Amino acid sequence: MQSMTLKKWIALKIYQFEMTFGLSDSVLEPWEKFTLNIVLGLFVFGMIRGIILIPSVVTYAIQQISSI
What we know:
Elements: H1 2-20, H2 30-66
């Protein structure tokens, strides 16, 4: 019973994502939707990775500047 509820929730989130970004089947072909999802995923991954790295980069820059 619980797994069916989870499946419905995941299906709803996928539907909401597709409607939010205009990725419904009537707008894009499957290969276009796949490509766009890959690009969007890489962009989000890059943004998250950048946010995680900012503190260490700033700390390193401050150490290099203060040692001059």
